[in-house]
Amino acid sequence: MVAVQKKSDAIDLGGMLRSELTLIASQGYPTEIFGVTSELVANQERFAKLISHRVPFSEVERAFELTMTPGAAEKVIVTFDDDTSDGGTGNG
What we know:
Layout: H1 13-19, H2 32-42, H3 44-48, E1 53-56, H4 60-68, E2 76-79
Parallel strand pairs: 1-2
């Protein structure tokens, strides 16, 4: 689960234990993008495989539905052009 949190939320650790969930935390820094940009450019095809859905901005509600539905999507990208030549799957 990736999100920007301004306020810390309570976590039900007992529920996590019973469900055998794994919680992995990460943090990004504003300067990191400059260090990874060349890697992203050099390996565009490899990183593009991580995107499960591309949704045009005109359908942003559908993008939110996908992200809020467990198992429906891996990574949803909202685009600001209406090019959905891949059918919105990110596989085209």
